[in-house]
Fold this protein.
Amino acid sequence: MQLLRVMTFSAAHRVAASPREQARRLHGHNFSVELLLGGEMDRERGWLLDFGDIRKAFAPLAERLDHSYLNEIEGLGTSNIPALEEWIFDRLKLDLPALERVLVTIAGDLQFTPHPLSEDTRLGLTARVAFTLESAHRLPKVGESHKCSRLHGHSFRVEVGATDLDRLTPQLHRIHDQLDHRYLNEIEGLENPTSENLAIRIWRALSADVDDLSTVVVRESPESACIYRGPSAG
């Protein structure tokens, strides 16, 4: 019997030894961690392990990894995917003897890969084009005790709505090149790079050339999003 438990965290890093220039820059991702466990099922209880116990075992690691700068964590070395998998496995195996493998993946596309999205009537969103930004940031105005004040990162998913999506896509490529695999705080006008400010920045950058914008959506994670419909008439 095998069990799979998926955990997530958001962090910044740079991979100094990568052959890809963009990976050597400070940037960030939403990471997914798949924990694969195996063994004999407890016949009386009817399970191999309590999924809650797996989550509890991972919790101290999540606290260390989430909203962090991975290169500063002792033992992570290059902070690339194999290093992350090894680091997590070594620290979980004692508490989870049934652990067989750790698989780490990145939520974003790692390149400009536009995806068409159909109209979402529930949220009042027109048809959109979506792409991801693998960017690092910190929020300097939330107070030092807030986790977002720490350097971290996300696989931001950006969705932009307009009447003519085909004409919009080349402009989005330009936005992607400006913001992807970057430390957003260092970009002029994004010194406080909240999702709200990022949405406004993207709207303003597009509006000079695109006159039929309807929406800019910025999703830090599948659970969190900002929907911006442009400046108010007043």
